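Assemble and predict.
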Amino acid sequence: MIKRVLIIDDEANVSKLYEDYLTENGFVVESINNPMGAVDKFTVFQPDLVLLDINMPDKDGFTLLREIKKVNPSVPIYFLTAHDEHKRNFNSLYAEEFILKSRDPKVIIKLIKNINENSETAASC
Amino acid sequence: MEISTLDKGIKNSLEFVTVRRRGYTVLFIGDTGREATLYSCNIGNFEVIFGFNDCEKPNNDILNMLAKSFLSLILNKEYSIDMERMLPFFDRIMKLEPLDNIIYSLLKVIIDSGISRKVGFFVLNDQLLKLRGIVLAEKKGDDVVYDNLAIKKCYIDLKNKGRVADLLFFEKTEIVNTGDIVNENFKKFFGDQVIISGVYNKKGIFGAIIVDSDSVEGYDISHIIAFSKILSLSIDHSRLNKQLSFAMEDIAYFKESIDVTSNFTQMGKITASLAHEIKNPLVSIGGFARRLEKYVTDEKGLSYLQIIQTETARLEKIVSDILAYSKLFVLNKDKVDLYDLLSNIKEFFSEKLDENRIVMDIFCEKGISILADEKKLKQVLINIVNNSIQAIERDGNICIEVNNEKDRCEILIKDTGGGFPFDVIQNAFQPFYTTKENGTGLGLSICQKIVAAHGGHMFIDNYDNGALVKISI
């Protein structure tokens, strides 16, 4: 069941947009705009889902994905990027989803709701 | 008589000697700046002028002997040509003046040097085997007069491979009796006897310098040879230079296009990275505008937010078009059934077509398939059909025809939307060229790029009362 979401994105405005939207939809959300502190933040915050940007200075999303998976491989990570060309490499990257940033972030809610419903069904079985 | 044996008084008072031939100086020894009394004597075609200082006039015999001594000096050494007269000729060669200027100048040098009073330049007509007159220079009074009309009617026939032909072939320069191989016009100019010296280029005989042999001294022939050799070299020189200048032009052209290409590549990279950078801010502007709608109740405020969102959407479209255009295509080629694809497209547009009362006809046999990236090909066709719909607006026809040939497949899209204006036909594939109010001007450029990536071609033209787009893939 996804309740806590960590957003890692160097674009503060974009992360704020998603943070507000998710918070409004009942999630507990925290954002970090400096990728260098992201793994520590992940360890402390212990999210159920990570929304991870790819193009970031100092450390890109692919590197962070490996580092986070080392800490806790069971937490799903969704790539959240403005650049669809990364989609080509997506399959081999072990991220659970690939989401294009959009003015309308409802895709994420839909995805999370799906996961939550599936896990509920699984739990009730 | 040796000069050293001259009377000491004469020797001491002799300031200078000038030897002239037919009015032109061919030798000068001494100092003209000194005051002197001039005495001259004529021997054959030569005039020897002595400048004496402080000396009574030597008697004529002595002068004559002295003159002959000087002449023998010159003649033994083969008399030289005044370099100053040659300079304008060499100058013309070096300045790469046109060949005819060089030839005119050479003929003038030959006359000015006193070799002959009449000299012509002839060119070999390979097919007719004739030496044909091109230009004649003749000394009239003090001037050199050129003729390039009457001389063109002069020729030497080489068909019988007689003496002249041999002479040219073996690169000899001699006095020849032209006999009956020349025409009447030639005889009028030169008579029967001329000196012929071949002019050659890389391929062989190019033409000849023909000199009136009257009063040409034996040693003049070596000069004529020298002149014809110089002319031969200058012909090659001028040809080589012409080739060089063409090569330089080509290099400049290619260099320029390389510059343009690399500029475009650079521009493409900059544009792509710029487009990337713009994407994130657009997400937040559009996203927050959307979120604001929840908090704003004022109608005007809501309409402003709507404008922000529409404009953001437009910017997003431009950015993604730019990225699509600048991106290298990776094609996922597979067998594409054209009938199915076109039916899909008709289905895709069905609502719009009905709404605008546009009839779409598809002429495509079932089972025609090509190797292509279906998604991308669909993108191309959607773009073209969409353009057609926009052009027709209401009531019209769109016809898609598929002609399957051996190794190519042609897809023709015709509409009744009035056709393209002329400048659109010229610029339709130029990125950012658009006539639409909301267009990015990248639609057709992207289509062309996709078709080209498939190894195909795309053409646009007008057809009856509409536009015609042809995709050959």
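The radius of gyration of chain B is 43 Å.
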